[in-house]
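Technical annex, item 7. During the second reporting period the consortium partners agreed on a shared format for inverse folding records so that results from different sites could be compared directly. Each record opens with the tokenized structure and is followed by the designed sequence. A conforming record, contributed by the partner at site C, is shown below for reference.
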């Protein structure tokens, strides 16, 4: 059975007015109304305690008031779809907010992952005419990423994640190559070692696309996503409590798939490459062991100090191959370390970057889109912590410090020195529901990266 959430009125539809109100604008809204209406509204405010704080909603006979507080409009309107009556349809009213941000917030707040519920809730009216093309593309990309992250591992293994990437390419007119079996072992040996312990074989998808307005000098932006569909930790087995959310360990891949969807929908004047490493880290007689020595695509050898540090082994081969194409920007995203969460918490993905202008562009775009990141250093003083007596490097440090930095320094060894590279260590999850951010998978940094790429493309001559 489908229950429809409240929705925004599309063009030509009628809907009740939904006023976005900030505390300082409450008196002005009342004074603009006819006296009798204002008196009734003021009385209702007193009865309900409505002060226009963020998330408050007050129903009137023929309208509703949504409190925005001092939160971003995006988040303020995120509370609306779930709080308004089912099946109701609304149009945006009031003046003290950005309409495009409000519509996007409404859509993001209406997201539900209900694939396995017998009673589902859907948005009543996806107001395409009231949401600009950019925000429409963002909403679709974020929903794609959230859906993938939320899908349990028994329904989303490596092949299913690869299917999602191939489906995206087919829908949006991109070229895609799917790599598996002996070809994968030859091209991505470290990634293959990570997936060797699972009955569900690893795969890599390589997607290529370019905008219709691309000139000869259009920038090549290369993306690499960690797609570990479930991470047991391997022989360095995680405790059960640490496995509870490991279906989200493919969050980096999901976010970049959602980003690619938005880029293609908006026809950005860039050349795009996306590599997704789809793999499962399991325990079996075929799984990699602590102290194993692995070959990598770059030729460097890695001693496995810990089988639970598998994400960097997935990414290192993808990054090495991406550098062979000499991209203008190379970006990877991964749910890589708990250390990044310990340092910055769940809401601030860690950014590492080898180029100051690139880092500045991503951080500024994140702030503008209310999709923040925080930069951490690629401190070379810790590089020796990855030394190994028997291989070119270890995949972990023996020291219990700076885990996120160590992981980034490991990846940096597989990136060519002339390549402008950014590494994003993300949580990709909301621990609890907040306005516009339902509990579960989250496409952190998607809006930030899209804004940065739009700016970068605009600086490049056509």
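Designed sequence (site C submission):
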């Amino acid at each position: 059975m489908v229950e429809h959430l409240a929705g925004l009125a599309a063009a030509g539809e009628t809907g009740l007015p939904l006023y976005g109100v900030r505390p300082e604008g409450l008196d002005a809204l009342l004074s603009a109304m006819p006296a009798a209406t204002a008196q009734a509204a003021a009385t209702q405010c007193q009865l309900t305690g409505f002060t226009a704080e963020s998330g408050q909603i007050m129903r009137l006979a023929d309208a509703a008031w949504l409190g925005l507080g001092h939160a971003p409009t995006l988040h303020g309107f995120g509370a609306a779809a779930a709080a308004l009556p089912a099946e109701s349809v609304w149009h945006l009213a009031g003046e003290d907010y950005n309409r495009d941000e409000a519509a996007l917030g409404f859509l993001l707040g209406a997201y539900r992952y209900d694939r396995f519920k017998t009673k589902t809730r859907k948005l009543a009216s996806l107001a395409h005419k009231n949401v600009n093309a950019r925000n429409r593309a963002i909403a679709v990309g974020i929903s794609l990423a959230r859906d993938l992250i939320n899908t349990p591992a028994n329904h989303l293994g490596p092949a299913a994640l690869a299917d999602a990437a191939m489906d995206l390419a087919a829908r949006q007119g991109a070229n895609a190559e799917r790599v598996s079996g002996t070809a994968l072992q030859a091209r991505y040996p470290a990634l293959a070692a990570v997936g060797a312990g699972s009955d569900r074989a690893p795969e890599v998808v390589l997607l290529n696309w370019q905008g219709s307005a691309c000139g000869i000098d259009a920038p090549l932006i290369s993306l690499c996503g960690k797609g570990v569909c479930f991470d047991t930790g391997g022989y360095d087995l995680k405790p059960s409590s640490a496995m509870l959310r490991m279906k989200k360990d493919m969050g980096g891949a999901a976010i970049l798939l959602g980003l690619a969807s938005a880029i293609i929908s908006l026809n950005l004047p860039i050349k795009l490459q996306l590599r997704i490493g789809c793999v499962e880290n399991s325990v079996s007689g075929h799984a990699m062991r602590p102290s194993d020595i692995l070959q990598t695509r770059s030729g460097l050898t890695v001693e496995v100090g810990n089988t639970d540090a598998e994400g960097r082994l997935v990414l290192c081969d993808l990054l090495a191959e991406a550098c062979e194409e000499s991209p203008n920007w190379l970006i990877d995203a991964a749910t890589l370390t708990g250390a990044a969460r310990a340092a910055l918490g769940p809401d601030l993905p860690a950014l590492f970057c080898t180029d100051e202008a690139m880092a500045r562009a991503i951080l500024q775009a994140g702030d503008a889109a209310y999709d923040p990141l925080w930069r951490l250093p690629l401190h070379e003083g810790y590089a020796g912590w990855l030394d190994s007596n028997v291989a070119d490097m270890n995949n972990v440090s023996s020291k219990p410090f700076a885990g996120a930095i160590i992981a980034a320094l490991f990846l940096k060894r597989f990136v060519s020195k002339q390549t402008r590279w950014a590494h994003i260590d993300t949580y990709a999850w909301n621990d609890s529901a907040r306005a516009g951010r339902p509990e579960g998978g989250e496409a952190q940094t998607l809006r930030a990266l899209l804004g940065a790429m739009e700016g970068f493309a605009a600086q490049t001559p056509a």
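The mean pLDDT is 93. Residues 133-150 form the longest helix (18 residues). All partners now use this format for quarterly exchanges.
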